[in-house]
Design goal:
- The protein is α/β, with parallel strands linked by helices.
- It has a single domain, classed as Vaccinia Virus protein VP39 (Rossmann fold), CATH 3.40.50.150.
- Helices cover 27% and strands 26% of the residues.
- The chain has a seven-stranded mixed sheet with strand order 3-2-1-4-5-7-6.
- β4, α5 and β5 form a beta-alpha-beta unit.
- It is globular.
- The termini are far apart.
Length: 210
């Protein structure tokens, strides 16, 4: 488990800014479009589903699921993320430090959880536990080897090969798993998984919707 040293409150904002600069890719045309990986599985999430967008940023995926009629909770440490989502019907934003503070959704479960371009290893099992029966996890972020393409370069923000599979395969039914270099919206080396907390034939029905 990666342990994070506690910092004084006065230094937390500065540190958050540094981490966001490290993990956020340079903005380019189309950078705010939904991830193709998320789009691939989003259609299997029905209207009315409870969706959690973790480290939502500007809210590209919160908007996607809200447009499908889902009830979306979006969380980010940056208050500007909430401002960007203020006029989006169906999205409830929470500003929270999900790394240093307590998990703000304790006791709640979701039908879908989406995470992109974000990694805090202690949260990986927490996200699995936050899935309702039949709920789907859609996760995509950078992995080792990303250094030759640009940020992030800090190993704390880079998945090891097969790390997502090792974490989630014992807990969830894996629908799809990929690792490698993508070209859009910019060249990057990523790892991504779609997995479901299976109940009955839920994972088979989701797979049929791909």
């Amino acid at each position: 488990m990666w342990l994070r040293r506690r910092v004084k409150p006065a230094a937390q904002a500065e540190r958050a800014a540094e981490e966001r600069a490290e993990t956020t890719p340079p903005r380019r045309h189309g950078a705010e479009d939904p991830s193709p990986w998320v789009l691939r599985f989003a259609a299997g999430v029905p209207p009315g589903a409870r969706v959690l967008d973790v480290a939502c940023g500007r809210g590209r995926h919160a908007r996607l699921f809200a447009a499908q009629g889902c009830a979306v909770d979006a969380v980010d440490i940056d208050a500007e993320a909430g401002a960007a989502l203020a006029d989006v019907t169906g999205v409830r934003f929470l500003q929270a430090d999900i790394e240093s503070g307590p998990w703000p959704y304790a006791g709640r479960q979701f039908d879908a959880i989406v995470v992109t371009h974000y990694l805090h290893r202690p949260l990986l099992p927490v996200l699995a536990d936050a899935l309702a029966a039949g709920g789907v996890l859609i996760y995509e972020t950078f992995m080792v080897g990303q250094e030759r393409f640009g940020r992030p370069t800090n190993p704390a923000f880079l998945l090891r090969p097969r790390e997502l599979l090792e974490v989630y395969a014992p807990r969830l039914a894996v629908i799809a798993f990929e690792e490698g270099v993508v070209s859009l919206p910019r060249p990057a080396r990523v790892s991504r998984i779609c997995a479901v907390r299976a109940t009955g034939d839920a994972h088979l029905r989701l797979d049929a919707d791909r």
